[in-house]
Amino acid sequence: MTERLTDLEGAILSLLIKCEGVTAYGIRTAFRRSPSEFWSGSAGAIYPAIARLEARGLVIAKAANQGKRKSKDLSLSTAGRSAVVAWAGQTDAACGAGFDPFRVRANVWQGLPRGQRDAVYRDLAKAIEARLAALPPTGMSVDDPAYTIEMAQQRARLDWLKAQSSS
């Protein structure tokens, strides 16, 4: 049986489905540009994960030069494609709550005195409206699922805030 992918490994492989031939630096850049703060794009996380995926035969690295720098173009092996498809099909994990900084703080907000809570809710609504106005981020297409999902998530947060403010 194939070893399960971590979410980081699955996210890396999912990027390779979308854009084969990208370098490890290109993957780091994609993570840093992600609207999710969950993905840091740190070299200390990305490069070792890519090395593990390559050692497991899930990623193929071909030497390539970018100017004076040596680099490797990465692509999925047949096993890598199967592994990422299996990872993406783990519906329980895909539908899990995951890390959500909004949800984690919600209990604290609800415990604040009414005036302070209302002020926080107003500030949150303004921040969400600003984030919605800034979508999609540079380099992201409006056809990208990450864009449409974030739009829905932010609107759901606004709906929750409105319901809290009216109760």
Give your account of this protein's structure.
The protein is mostly helical and 167 residues long. Helices cover 62% and strands 10% of the residues. It has helices at residues 7-18, 24-33, 43-55, 78-88, 91-94, 101-110, 114-134, 145-166; strands at residues 59-66, 69-76. A two-stranded antiparallel ribbon has the order 1-2. Strand 1 (59-66) and strand 2 form a beta hairpin. It is elongated. The termini are far apart.
- The share of residues in extended strands comes to 5-15%
What helical percentage do the residues reach?
55-70%
Q: What's the order of the H and E elements? A: HHHEEHHHHH
Largest beta sheet: what is the strand line-up?
1-2
Assembly of the depicted chains = single chain
Bulk shape: elongated
Secondary structure tally: strands: 2
Q: Unreliable runs, pLDDT <50, ≥5 residues?
A: none
Cα end-to-end separation: 52 Å
- From the alpha-carbon coordinates, what is the Rg to the nearest angstrom? 20 Å
Mean pLDDT: 86
**Total of DSSP H or I helical runs spanning 4+ residues:** 8
